[in-house]
Design brief:
This protein has about 550 residues and is an alpha+beta fold. The protein contains 16 helices and 23 strands. About 30% of the residues lie in helices and about 25% in strands. The chain starts with a helix and ends with a helix.
C-alpha cells in the first residue's frame, strides 16, 4: 500500500509539473523526507516518510529534484551577470515553516555546495539530522535553525507541521528571491524529554559562602522553569548561576556535576582582569596612563611588518579592541586570528609581527583581537613588581578574599590574559560586585572609581555585526536587555561557551552565568535568553 501511495503521488507530480508561478506555488510538493542512515543504505522510494520524532529518530534527510539546475534560476534573477558572478552572489534559499509560520530563513553562502551541484545537478540530497557532526552545510543549517533560529522553542512539545521551501536568491545591493523550486512537509512529533525531577526545585544556599544572605524574595517559579530547561538540555552545559542583590547573595545554583568549589574555565571573561590590573598599575604609577604608546614598551622596528602607523598604537586602543592590527578573531582567514597565535612559541612576538590594517582608524574601529590582550598582559607583567600573577594576587584576590583560583600561562610563563584564569562562580560574582561598588570592597578602594567608570563606559561602537552587538569599554562589553517593555543597561565580561558576569547599571544586581558550551553555536544567545526569559523576570517581577 505504501509503495502504491508514493507511485500515485509521483505520477500526480509529473502530471501537474513543477510550475513556479505564484498562482501555482501551493501545488508544489516535490521535496520529500527520509529517516534512514544514508551512509549505510541507498534511498528507495519506500523510504520516504511523512512523520519524524524529534529527540528519538536519529536521521532526517531532505530530497528534492529540480526541473533545471540552480544556475538557470539564478540567471532569471540577474540575466546580466556572468555564471561566476551568479555563483558568487547567489545560491539556494531555505525557509523553515512550523505550523505554517516562517521561523527561520537561510541564504546559503557560496561555499555551500560545489560548482557542479549548482550548474548541472538536478537531484539533491540534504542531510539535516545525524547523530554525529557532518562536514556538510545541511547539518549546520539545521543546527542554526534549531539553536539560533528559534526552532528548538517552537518545536518544544507536541505535534507540529514542518515545511521546507527552497528558492533561488541573488544578493547585490539588496536580496532578490525567486519563486519556489521545491517544497515539502513532514509531521514532527516531539518526544518528551525525561528529566530528574529532583533537579527542578530552587537550590538551597549552603552556609559559608562568604556573602551575607539576601532576605529578599524572587519568583521561584521562574527559576524552577529555568532549572527544568537546563535539565532538559534546552540550555546546554550550564554549570552555575549566581545572583547578587545589593551586595548580598540571592540565588546560587549549580548544574551538571559542578558545585560551589568548582573552578570554572570562563575563557575570555579573563580578558577583563587585564583591564583591572592595568588600572591598578596606573594608580600605583608603574604605568603612566592608558594613553601611553606601545612603542614605549617594545622596539617595534625590530618586529616584522613595521610601519609608522604602529607608532601610534596606545594601550587604550588595545583595551578597546581598536588598535588597527590585522587581527580579527571572528574572521578565520585573518592573519591575527587567535587560532594562529596559540601554536606559536611566542605569542607576544606573533602579535607584534602582525601588519596593520590600513583602512582602520586606531582608537575608533573595533575588531575583536585577543592577541592585543596578550600584549597588555605582557606589559603589565614587565611593569609591576614580581610579575602579573603575583601582583594580581596581592592587589585583587587578597582584598576580595579569593584564595581558590588557577591561572593558565603563555609560552613565556606569563599569566594568560587572553582568557586563562579559573575561579569559582561565587568568586566571579565578587569581581562583578567590585565594579558594581565603583571599585570598593569592604570599605577599601581596591580600584579607582574613575577607572571603573571608564572601563564600563561605551568607549567604541562595535560597527560590524555579531552575537554581542553594542559597545565596548576597557575589555568590558555593553548592551541593553529589554524585558516586558523596559530597558536594562548592563556592562559585562564575556567568554566563549556563554560565560558572563553581568553588572547592571540602574538595578541592584550582579549576575554570573558559567557554562562550558564551548563548541555550541547558541551558547551566547542561550545566556541572553536565560537572562531575558527567566533570571531578570524572576528578580524584577517577583510575583
Amino acid at each position: 500500500m505504501k509503495l502504491k501511495y508514493y507511485l500515485t503521488l509521483t505520477i500526480c507530480l509529473i502530471i501537474s509539473g513543477n510550475a513556479i508561478s505564484s498562482a501555482q506555488t501551493k501545488k508544489i510538493e516535490n521535496l520529500y523526507f527520509s529517516k534512514i542512515d544514508l551512509k549505510k543504505e541507498k534511498i528507495k522510494l519506500t523510504d520516504y516518510t511523512n512523520s519524524f520524532t524529534l529527540n528519538k529518530d536519529k536521521f532526517l534527510t531532505a530530497h528534492f529534484t529540480l526541473d533545471k539546475p540552480l544556475i538557470e534560476s539564478l540567471k532569471l534573477l540577474a540575466p546580466n551577470l556572468t555564471q561566476d558572478q551568479l555563483l558568487n552572489k547567489g545560491s539556494f534559499q531555505f525557509s523553515f515553516l512550523v505550523d505554517g509560520k516562517i521561523v527561520y530563513t537561510e541564504n546559503l553562502n557560496k561555499g555551500a555546495g560545489n560548482i557542479k551541484s549548482k550548474t548541472t545537478q538536478l537531484k539533491h540530497t540534504i542531510p539535516l539530522i545525524y547523530p554525529k557532526q557532518l562536514d556538510f552545510w545541511g547539518w549546520f543549517m539545521w543546527l542554526k535553525f534549531m539553536k539560533l533560529g528559534g526552532g528548538q522553542d517552537v518545536l518544544a512539545k507536541g505535534n507540529h507541521s514542518l515545511t521546507i521551501e527552497v528558492r533561488p536568491y541573488i544578493k547585490r545591493s539588496e536580496i532578490k528571491v525567486g519563486a519556489i523550486l521545491a517544497k515539502g512537509n513532514i509531521t514532527i512529533e516531539v518526544a518528551k524529554a525525561l528529566v530528574d525531577e529532583s533537579l527542578i526545585p530552587v537550590q538551597k544556599i549552603q552556609p559559608n559562602s562568604g556573602w551575607k544572605l539576601s532576605k529578599d524574595n524572587f519568583n521561584t517559579k521562574k527559576i524552577e522553569a529555568l532549572n527544568r530547561k537546563i535539565a532538559e538540555k534546552r540550555f546546554e552545559n550550564i554549570n552555575g548561576i549566581v545572583v547578587i542583590k545589593e551586595n548580598k547573595l540571592l540565588i546560587e545554583e549549580y548544574f551538571n556535576g559542578e558545585n560551589r568549589n568548582s573552578l570554572h574555565d570562563s575563557r575570555s571573561v579573563g580578558k577583563s582582569f587585564a583591564s583591572t590590573m592595568l588600572g591598578v598599575a596606573i594608580e600605583e604609577k608603574y604605568i603612566d596612563n592608558e594613553n601611553v604608546l606601545l612603542k614605549d614598551f617594545y622596539n617595534l622596528k625590530s618586529f616584522n611588518n613595521y610601519s609608522e602607523k604602529k607608532d601610534s598604537i596606545t594601550l587604550k586602543s588595545l583595551l578597546t579592541m581598536s588598535s588597527g592590527f590585522l587581527g580579527d578573531d571572528r574572521d578565520y582567514d585573518s592573519p591575527g586570528n587567535e587560532e594562529n597565535m596559540y601554536p606559536t612559541d611566542n605569542w607576544v612576538k606573533f602579535s607584534l609581527d602582525l601588519p596593520m590594517k590600513n583602512d582602520k582608524v586606531i582608537g575608533k574601529d573595533y575588531m575583536y583581537f585577543t592577541a592585543g590582550v596578550v600584549i597588555l598582559g605582557d606589559i603589565i607583567h614587565k611593569s609591576v613588581p614580581e610579575g602579573l600573577v603575583s601582583y594580581t594576587d596581592k592587589k585583587l584576590f587578597k582584598p576580595l578574599n579569593i584564595t581558590n583560583y588557577k591561572w593558565q600561562y603563555t609560552p613565556q610563563k606569563v599569566g594568560n590574559t587572553a582568557g586563562g584564569i579559573q575561579l569559582r562562580a561565587i568568586d566571579f560574582a565578587k569581581y562583578g560586585q567590585l565594579y558594581k561598588n565603583k571599585g570598593k570592597w569592604n570599605g577599601k578602594q581596591v580600584l579607582t572609581k574613575k577607572w571603573v567608570e571608564k572601563s564600563l563606559s561605551k568607549q567604541v561602537s562595535q560597527a560590524y555585526g555579531g552575537i554581542d552587538d553594542g559597545y565596548y569599554g576597557y575589555l568590558f562589553w555593553n548592551k541593553t536587555y529589554t524585558v516586558n517593555g523596559k530597558n536594562y543597561e548592563v556592562s559585562f565580561c564575556s567568554g566563549r561557551g556563554g560565560n558572563k558576569i553581568f553588572i547592571f547599571k540602574d538595578i541592584p544586581f550582579v549576575v554570573v552565568v558559567t557554562s562550558s558550551a564551548y563548541d555550541s553555536l547558541s551558547a551566547h544567545t542561550n545566556t541572553d535568553k536565560i537572562m531575558t526569559d527567566y533570571i531578570l523576570p524572576a528578580i524584577i517581577d517577583k510575583e
